[in-house]
Amino acid sequence: MKHWKTLTLSTAISVLGLPALAQEVTTLRLGNWLPPHHLIVSKILKPWAAAIEDETGGSLQFEIMTSALGPPPAQFDLLLDQSFDVGYGVSGHNPGRFSMTQVIDLPFMSPDPWAGSAASWLTYQKFGAEYGEHEGAHVVGLFTHSNPNINMAGGRVETLADLEGKTIRVGGNVTGRMMAELGASPVQLPPTEAQTAMSRGVADGITFPSESIAFFGITPAITSVTRIPGGLYTDTFWVAFNEDSWNSLTDDQRAAVEKHSGMAIAMLAGFAWTSDDITGEQALRDNGAEFLTLSDEDLATIRDRLKPLETEWIEQANAKGFDGEEILSYAREMVQNYLTDKSGFTQK
Question: Which residues form a coiled coil (predicted)?
Answer without folding.
Answer: none
